[in-house]
Design a protein that fits this description.
The protein is of the alpha+beta class and about 130 residues long. It is about 55% helix and about 15% strand. The longest helix has 15 residues.
Length: about 130
């Protein structure tokens, strides 16, 4: 579901009976979703990503990631790896602001984000020392 709260669009993601995330999206993402909805296969299913035979399932996503990883010549990429990587980047971009990273990832329990904090700080320190010529 796409939700509008004033000027800010959100997307609601349901991962199971008890797993629901509400994530803010930017204007470019909103436009891309609207464009996709105008051309996606026609189906009574309200899910965002569908095939002509039904909703996109986990094995579809894993297959796409496997093919893209192989083409790029990189080790296997998984949805979890993408999410973990995004969490680390959000923490680095926000200067370690766990609350902001949690909101952007749609995570209600900040403890989940805290586990990425040491990784984000170490990588940030390593990058800073590599860029410092002294």
């Amino acid at each position: 579901d796409m939700i509008f709260d004033g000027e800010k669009p959100f997307i609601r993601i349901r991962g199971g009976p008890a797993a629901e995330r509400t994530i803010p999206i930017d204007g470019k993402t909103f436009v891309a979703i609207r464009e996709w909805l105008s051309v996606r296969p026609s189906t009574p299913d309200r899910r965002l990503f569908v095939t002509e035979s039904g909703p996109v399932r986990r094995h579809h996503v894993l297959g796409i990631l496997d093919r893209v990883s192989a083409i790029a010549g990189i080790p296997r990429v998984t949805p979890r790896l993408l999410r973990n990587t995004r969490a680390v980047h959000l923490l680095r971009e926000s200067g370690g602001d766990i609350a902001s990273a949690a909101t952007l990832l749609g995570v209600s329990m900040k403890e989940i984000i805290r586990k990425y904090y040491p990784i984000a700080i170490v990588r940030s320190d390593q990058q800073s020392s590599a860029e410092d010529p002294h």
